[in-house]
Every structure is written in C-alpha cells, then in structure tokens.
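During the practical work, I worked with a single protein chain and the tokens that describe its fold, as given directly below.
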Amino acid sequence: MSKIFVKDEASKAIMREAGSRLCFVMEKLAEKIEPGVSTAELDELAEKLILEKDSRPAFKGYGEKFNPFPSTICASINQEIVHGIPSEKRILREGDLFKIDIGLEYQGFFADMARTFPVGKISPKAQDLIEKTEKCFWSGVNRIKEGVRLSEYSKGVEECIKKTPYSIVRDLVGHGIGRALHEDPQVTNYFEPQMPDPILREGMALALEPMINEGTWKTKMSRDGWVFETADGKLSAHYENTILVTKKGVEVLTVKK
C-alpha cells in the first residue's frame, strides 16, 4: 500500500467546501428527476452547476486516454450498478431505480458522492433496497474513529447486509480521496482478511460507497468498457459520501448541514 495522506486543517477546510458544493449540485439534480427526463439533461445541468461553483467535474475525461469517461455524472438505471453514461436516448421511466454518482474538484481537492433515487412510484422491494443500502453505509461509518482499523467499516457494512436478502458487490470498492479522486486505501464493503488493514488517523479522508444488489453480488461489464451491471439483471442501489476521520468518529462532507 502507498502512503495514506492525512489532511492538515487548511486541506480539510477546502474539502469541506468541496463537499458542500457537491451536495448542493446533487440536491438540484434530485429536484429534476421524474419520468420523461433524459439522463443527458441531468448531465448538462450537473456540469453547469459545478462550473458555476468555480469547480471542475471530476469524472469527465477520467480514465485511459483511449477511452475516457465522457460525462459529468455516472447515470445508472435499474440493473446498472455504476458508471452509466448519460444520453439523450436514455429516458427515465416510471418505476426506474436511478443512481447518480458525481464528483468535483475545488481548489485542488476532490469530493465524491452517490445517491439512488426512485423515478415516480417504484416497487416496495426497490424502495427497501434503497433504504437498506443507506442503512448499511451508516452501519459501517458509525464504527469509524481515530485508532480503529479500517476493517471495522467493512465489517459493519457486511454485518448489516447479512440481515437482508440482498448481496454486496465485491468487484467495486471505496477509496481514499483528497488531492486525487482516488487515493489509497481501497475500502471493501465486506471483510477480507487479506486486504491491507491500516489504523485510521484523524484527518484521513475516505469516499465510502456500498453498492448492494437485489440478487447475486456478481457483476458483468458492458460493451462500452465502463458500465458495471448485475450479472443476473436484477436491481442494484448505491450510496456514497466523502468523510473525514475524527478523534471521536467521522465528519461527513457530502450531506446537507
């Protein structure tokens, strides 16, 4: 494992502002989610709002030079887990489960978050999946504070999901965040004894993001090389926040204060 960066007070202040700005953008996007809206419309709005906040979209252009991510948001629908690409042809429909993953850079620091939204009236099972995914995020986060092992988060999420009929995606993980969108450490949403298990220190920043499937945890990659989908075609939900480790717990940077 490479060095895990501890943020000083000046860095933490910028990250708080980045998180606040990103949270504002997500709130405005949420207001526009309804049947008939194209994912391209939401992507255009997200980019406009981020630029108005003197910030830069974190995802647009990310990745390999031969296949960079083309959009400001990841717009994933139903069985798509993450990295869905917005398009004028991708229209939200009544009953869809819609995920937005979004990041921005502000004054050299990044914030990252994701939410799952109902489109109109959804099934009781889909609503339960949304609620359980958020619940399992907090089950893991509530174990974090200075001096504990990173695996306490992973164990908390895993123990939560075992009480449900759902499964945790194992092919995608959370990550450190700061001056880069993805920093060490990688953070699994399940306990894996072979994974590095550092002791957390005040000022470490993490983007924690359980992705939970209605059926199997297994995934498949779409032809575009970006979109992860559930292997069985069933629903998936995603919930993510950027957090700072404190002496007594966490400071969540991407929730409304």
Q: What stands out?
A: Helices lie at 9-30, 39-52, 124-141, 151-161. DSSP finds four helices and 15 strands in the chain.
